[in-house]
């Protein structure tokens, strides 16, 4: 097999496309597409999300200490593209896309109802890794579409038609 030097940026791909939703102290909701996200502990269950400090949502998460990771399936492609290419600074992008939301069960942040899986998290730590601050979130509650879960609540991720790249 012939190997050559490859681009180091985002070298752990493919990864599921995610939208991170949050709520500011003033009750304002927002969501953004996040490229850097992954599991980082199974006991206790934790995930990490990387957010550039210049993003509108960054300060909301920093102040409130919570967020929701919403896994995006292909049915969310248009919403994902829009939320990932527009800033809340320029207007209410959630309203512009008619994003359906509900309050989290354990955290004060919205879940995006059209995403098949929503992972509610509280921030337990963070580390600046260069361009991003990685927020470590303890998983407090997971919502999953009933069509992709078994009787014990296990998620069959193969039943989600994830957005490709």
What does this structure look like?
With 165 residues, the protein is mostly beta strands. It has one domain: Pnp Oxidase, Chain A. 13% of the residues lie in helices and 38% in strands. It is built from 3 helices and 9 strands, in the order ββββαβααββββ. Strands 2-1-5-8-9-4-3 form a 7-stranded antiparallel beta sheet. A two-stranded antiparallel sheet has the order 6-7. The longest helix has 9 residues. The two termini are 25 Å apart. The model has no long low-confidence stretch (mean pLDDT 94).
Uncertain residue ranges: none
Domain count, please report it: 1
Number of strands: 9
Distance between the termini: 25 Å
Rg to the nearest angstrom? Answer: 16 Å
Question: Overall 3D geometry?
Answer: globular
The CATH class, by name, is Mainly Beta
- In CATH, the topology is named Pnp Oxidase, Chain A
Determine the number of helices (DSSP H or I, runs of at least 4 residues). Answer: 3
Secondary structure: helix percent: 10-25%
In terms of structural class, how would the helical and strand content be classed? Answer: mainly beta
CATH homology-level superfamily: Electron Transport, Fmn-binding Protein, Chain A
- Strand % is 35-45%
CATH architectural name? Roll
Q: Record the strand order, biggest sheet.
A: 2-1-5-8-9-4-3
Give the SSE order as H and E letters. EEEEHEHHEEEE
Q: How would you characterize the largest beta sheet?
A: 7 strands, antiparallel
What's the pLDDT, averaged over the residues?
A: 94
């Amino acid at each position: 097999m012939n190997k050559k030097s490859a681009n180091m940026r985002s070298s752990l791909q493919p990864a599921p496309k995610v939208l991170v939703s949050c709520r500011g102290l003033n009750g304002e909701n927002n969501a953004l597409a996040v490229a850097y996200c992954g599991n980082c502990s199974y006991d206790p269950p934790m995930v990490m999300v990387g957010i550039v400090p210049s993003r509108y949502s960054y300060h909301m998460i920093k102040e409130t200490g919570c967020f929701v990771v919403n896994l995006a399936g292909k049915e969310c492609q248009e919403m994902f593209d829009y939320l990932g290419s527009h800033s809340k600074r320029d207007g209410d992008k959630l309203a512009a896309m008619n994003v359906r939301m509900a309050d989290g069960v354990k955290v004060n942040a919205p879940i995006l109802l059209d995403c098949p899986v929503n992972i509610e998290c509280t921030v337990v730590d963070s580390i600046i890794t260069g361009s991003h601050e990685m927020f470590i979130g303890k998983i407090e509650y997971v919502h999953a579409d009933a069509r992709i879960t078994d009787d014990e609540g296990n998620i069959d991720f193969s039943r989600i038609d994830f957005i490709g790249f």
